[in-house]
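dude i think i finally got it to work??
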Amino acid sequence: MNKTFLSKSNYCKCVQCEKILWLNKYKPEFSQVETNESVFETGRQVGELAKRLFGDYKDIPYDKNIKVRLEKTEQLLQDKTNIITEASFIYDNNFCSVDILKNDRDGVEIYEVKSSTKIKDVYLDDATYQYFVLSKLGLNVKKVAIVFINNEYIRGKELDIENLFNIEDITSIAIEKQDEIRSNIDFINKFMEDHDRDNEPVKEIGKYCFDPYSCIFWDYCTAELPKPNVFDVSGMYKSKKFEKYYEGKISFEDLENENLNPKYLEQIEFELNDKKPKIHKNAIKDLIESLVYYISLIMKLVNMQYLNTKKQNHISKYHSNTHYISLKKKVLL
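look at this
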């Protein structure tokens, strides 16, 4: 059996950078997790809505004890439950929970739910890993699909779940990537065997530190760089930052005479010479006024969409206008 326990999220992180797993295991205190509550909540809501795609379902609630989830999954499969959400499986220390599992007589279907409006490569790795685990357990995986948001959907009075989502069949891709999955899992296990707590792996930073996700150990891996450095230049493309990094132009002192966009050079100059912040008051005022206007407009459109009677629309319009005026007064005072 493989010694390294891999969840589907850890597998995807290792595809991005294998050192993430080592740091998670031996130096978790150095992680810098940026919690975006709104993004998390959106993902949760999308996941809950998607569970209703195929009608009635049985949900397996989260439990820190993986064994509990595995046992509940096995029981539902034995009961021939057709739709199971968060079904959990483990094969050779490779673990995954399936967002939506369609359990038919002749096999199962995997549906991975994402709150995005397009399919990304990391989603393919995620779903393909699930195919690997389930098929190795002897299940006949008939289909693997990505469920994602249909950005052309316009809501009417009632929410139409089927039209809210796009479902793309990626079964052929999942099958083609199985050798890659096996190879990656073998590599990850060998990597962790070769690097114990006292043998930290050496890994140069690169664009993969931000693709597909920003690494939570970025500060740790760049702790030896001068401060501030090229990665602190606001607005500069990451590709440009790494270009300068690879050229050895890392510190602000290295960059001050480079042929860069004037706005980048201005940042560098202000930092090196400890100048006072430069504030464009008129530009900020114009921006706030435009934001207030568009917020008011959005509120009107939302109210018009959901309120049906003339009286309700009249009240909504009055409150929206009042809110806009009060906001504008606060900004301008």
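The chain has 14 helices and six strands.
im so relieved honestly
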